[in-house]
Design goal:
It contains 6 helices and 17 strands. Strands 9, 10, 11, 12, 13, 14, 15, 16 and 17 form a 9-stranded mixed sheet that branches. Strand 5 and strand 6 form a beta hairpin.
């Protein structure tokens, strides 16, 4: 019998706020901008490394790991793995990250899933990069560490979120984790942290590389004006909202849709709706 490991997103927004609150405590307010600029300069040529895996895993893989799909509103089969006779982790409903263990090595795990492995992605907080998987218009982050004969892994869908119509949340895909809520803008401003640093860690060419894999119905790229438009899914209605989020790269802002035809303009230290 196949085992399933299920990941949900019901608590994504709450987890995001807690994550941001903790993150802000560790910032040194005076040198944040300089720190981000230095990281940009150092990693600008290798923030998204695209490469393939040589060879393939020929062992038996009777099990699989499921995770959330931002555009589906349900859990989907993501990676193949061998879990038989092994402890596979603790099931936690509503968790956005799930952990599992296998006797496959990290290399074997990637070889077994080479058809969806696209390379590595670096973020502001992960300068070494995570393994990046792409399947059915969803990016997933796979991390693994070896402990003797066991490989401990985590898998999560790379979702960002924004508040829509006051009490609803929309999820969409951006590199790293980005949470757009008026409640956190003041926290960023107090700590002199750029609200958009997770996005402007990348040059436009990096973002283009990230988004080029999506179907056109979910994403469009305007290279001349450096604008990327991304669809999102309302977690309450499960409706896909076309062009929900716009990365206006030249003007250093992100624009998200609001109710009644309004838009929210997110800048480094403020947000306004019109």
């Amino acid at each position: 019998m196949k085992k399933k490991i299920i990941i949900g997103v019901s608590s994504l927004f709450i987890v995001g706020l807690l994550f941001l609150g903790i993150k802000c405590l560790f910032y040194e307010s005076d040198d944040t901008s300089e720190r981000v600029r230095n990281m940009n300069a150092k990693y600008v040529d290798s923030l998204i490394e695209t490469f393939s895996i040589e060879g393939e895993y020929r062992g038996n893989m009777p099990d699989y790991v499921e995770a959330d799909a931002w555009n589906e509103g349900k859990n989907v089969n993501v990676i193949k793995v061998k879990l038989e006779g092994e402890k596979s982790g603790v099931y936690e409903p509503g968790a956005s990250i799930h952990y599992f263990s296998t006797r496959m090595t990290p290399d074997e795990l990637l070889k077994a899933n080479k058809d969806i492995f696209v390379g590595k992605l670096k973020t502001v907080f992960n300068k070494t990069g995570c393994n990046l998987l792409f399947k059915n218009n969803n990016y997933y982050e796979l991390t693994s560490t070896s402990d003797k004969a066991i490989t401990h892994c985590s898998l999560r869908c790379i979702n960002s979120s924004a508040v829509y119509n006051k009490d609803e949340t929309v999820v969409f895909q951006m590199p790293g984790e980005n949470y757009f809520d008026v409640k956190i803008v003041d926290s960023y401003k107090e700590n002199k942290v750029d609200l958009l640093e997770g996005i402007y860690f990348y040059q436009f060419k990096d973002l283009k590389e990230f988004y080029k894999r999506f179907d056109k119905k979910y994403c469009s790229i305007d290279e001349e004006n450096q604008i990327i438009r991304i669809a999102g899914r309302n977690l309450s209605t499960h409706k896909i909202i076309k062009d929900f989020a716009t990365i206006d790269y030249k003007n250093h802002r992100v624009i998200t849709k609001e109710s009644r035809g309004r838009k929210a303009y997110w800048e480094s230290d403020k947000v306004y709706i019109k």
